[in-house]
Amino acid sequence: MNVTLFHLMSYADLDFEATKEYETVWMKLPNKFYDPVKGHKLYNRYLDELEYAETLGFDGVAVNEHHQTAYGLMPSPVVMASALARRTQRVKIAILGSALPLREHPMTVAEEYAMLDVITGGRLIAGFVRGIGAEYHTFGLNPTISHERFHEAHDLIVQAWTQPGPTSFSGKHYNVDYVNLWPRPFQNPHPPIWVPSQGSKETIDWAAHPDHRYTYLQTFSPAKAVQKYLQSYRDTAEQFGYEADDSQLGWAVPVYVADTDEQAIKEAREPFELFRNRLLKMPFEMLLPPGYSSRDSLKRIMAAKAMLSQDLTIEMAIDMGMLVCGSPATVRQQLESHWNEMHFGNLLTMLHFGNLSEELTRRNMDMFAKEILPGLQTMKRAAPAQASA
User: Fold this and answer.
1) C-beta separation of 225 from 205 below 8 A
2) d(CA 84, CA 48)
3) Torsion over CA: 208, 213, 214, 215 (sign)
4) What is the reported pTM?
5) 63 closest CA partner among 25, 9, 116, 10
6) Architecture label for domain 2-377
């Protein structure tokens, strides 16, 4: 299994008491509550933590994209990946991902990703997302055309990466007479493509298609929902006539390790509950505006998230598999149990969440790397027995 350190870069210094009157920290929270001096320290702290992951032996580091929110301070994950490109030597750098429909032009993404891939000597993982509904409010874009903009942008990017130029591209949203990428990607035919999702049927069908076979990542969700969506990917691949490899599946989950279960819960309680009940929370119509998903996908996502409309305690989150938390023995047991049920080939660990302090984040990373990481990296399913002659 490949294990990646995934960082959301939340605004951990938010005054939660002063902002409690606001329904959400997304889009509507006045930016007077952002202090650039504190932000300067946080950005550099978070980049240090990602760089430290290479020293600890992680297989990769991952950043993502959100806009106008204290939930995550990365409106441009390419900037974060660029900062990491020259400060790391071995780890894969995953951008999870650029929200293609929000970009003015996908050729910019193609160029920036190719630059990063060349600079790192082929260590880039190219993540593509549509962006959650709140991003469409932020940019004033029509969510009903997000799918077609996403697919068309993807097609143009892959063409730019793989077809000798100059070529041309003609679509509904993008028309380019000269598709002639300089530089071309380092990896051939292009960097691996990962697709994070909330569980949209359309996304699963598209990612699993034989023409793609992209790695599908289920984002922060209860373990039973994760298992359901990963199995849906496998079932879809089977309908297409092939067996999905474990490497095509991934799960992103917060993890916290301490000496004992009691200590872990005590230390993680406030940061996790702030993360889940304050930073993540937004009105349903902001998360999934009309037209953002098909009716079938909306039903699936609503069913999975119906139980999550209320605030959760850390104990509830652990029971639901939304947080892996405890002593090294407990965390190993929980992750091994989840892997035995799902057989995901990629685990994206969120070892910082909410306002978890730098001291506790580092200790969490150290304990995870020493006690948990080596065992996870050797986990794989046994090869099928060969029939005797």
Assistant:
1) no
2) 9
3) positive
4) 0.95
5) 9
6) Alpha-Beta Barrel (3.20)
